[in-house]
Amino acid sequence: MVDTCFLSQGLTTLAGLLLLPFGSLAASQIEVGVRPSERQGPAGDSCVVAVCTSRFWFNYRHVANTLSVYRSVKRLGIPDSHIVLMLADDMACNPRNPKPATVYSHKNMELNVYGDDVEVDYRSYEVTVENFLRVLTGRIPSSTPRSKRLLSDDRSNILIYMTGHGGNGFLKFQDSEEITNIELADAFEQMWQKRRYNELLFIIDTCQGASMYERFYSPNIMALASSQVGEDSLSHQPDPAVGVHLMDRYTFYVLEFLEEINPASQTNMNDLFQVCPKSLCVSTPGHRTDLFQRDPKNVLITDFFGSVRKVEITTETLSLQPDSGVIESRVWVVYESGSSLSLAFV
């Protein structure tokens, strides 16, 4: 008996061996026809929610902040299917933009963080406190497309990055509403209770940013902020051609730090804590680790910013006898058929 599903065009012929555990994995659990990137929360996967809450041209830097993080996590292997990108304004197509379809993070237009493959999931007036909280908690209407969902579970490491204008205990959304640190803390607790994350890294670049993580109380959360309570988070990289500052100081130095990271890097979170000292940021960056179970020096940057699969190697011999708990192997074969590619197993 042969089951067939069609995959995307242009792949080369492949073959693999799939061992199906008997009993612990029923046949009904086999996801035939589902791309790996669409399966919910494979072990070791990272997910990202990147949010810019500001509108208007003079807030260009907040869009550039968010796109810088988006660009970095994609470069390190996290696919768009695992990223929820929320941009409250479209600077790339703003009529004031001297270089349409671009957003730059460095003066003299050295680095375009917009690129040519940006997938914005929530844009303009879709970027609201309600939609943000629904993405985190999974309380989304059934009609919502997969691209607007955070497909995570209790095996997922989640990076949440936010930037915009804030104050002591709040972050503004589009100058019309606010999310408070209590609301954010309660949303993370819902995520924990609903088994929507394994570990969570929260980063915020805003004025008085540290106030946003003061109320967190859920396990396995590490938090970073660009400024302490009572401090402003300052802009950086003024560009006369664009007419505004291109980025905020904290995210600018985080971006420079991430540009040196590759998927095999052993750089850890303690290194990230040091990227923007007061001498560079002017404000005082902060971090909180008391809720996090692991020592930050043992947490790799790629645990949150990259997609590095965790592999367990065993030297044990597995019996393939019928009574061993492992049923017969099935061979997957990929072959071309006209302009399509087919996958079959027997």
From TrEMBL:
Subunit comment: Heteropentamer. Part of the GPI-anchor transamidase complex, consisting of PIGK, PIGT, PIGS, PIGU and GAA1. Interacts with GPAA1. Interacts with PIGT; this interaction, via a disulfide link, stabilizes the expression of GAA1 and PIGK and links them to PIGS.
Keywords associated with the record: GPI-anchor biosynthesis, Signal
Name listed for the protein in its UniProt record: GPI-anchor transamidase
Keyword Signal: yes
Cleaved signal peptide residues: 1-26
Family to which this protein belongs: Belongs to the peptidase C13 family.
GO process annotations (BP): attachment of GPI anchor to protein; GPI anchor biosynthetic process; proteolysis
